[in-house]
Amino acid sequence: MTRHLRDKPDDEGAPDPGDVAAVERRRLTERGAEAQRERDLAWTRYRDNLANAWKTNPRAATAIERQGERWRGGR
What is the C-alpha separation between 45 and 43, in angstroms, rounded? Predict the structure, then answer.
């Protein structure tokens, strides 16, 4: 608490263990950053798949569509 009163940051940038709200905010921030990394990775994969879709062999595309239909329970 005295650290906050003196307005002096701690050594590692970590919240004071006694400040439950600060610890929770940091945990949520870290989870948010992880979620954003996952969204970014998914977007990159989607963008790359879309950019390269025209390169797909038409015969392979048909087989992939059939497989997708089986997975979705269409057949």
Answer: 5
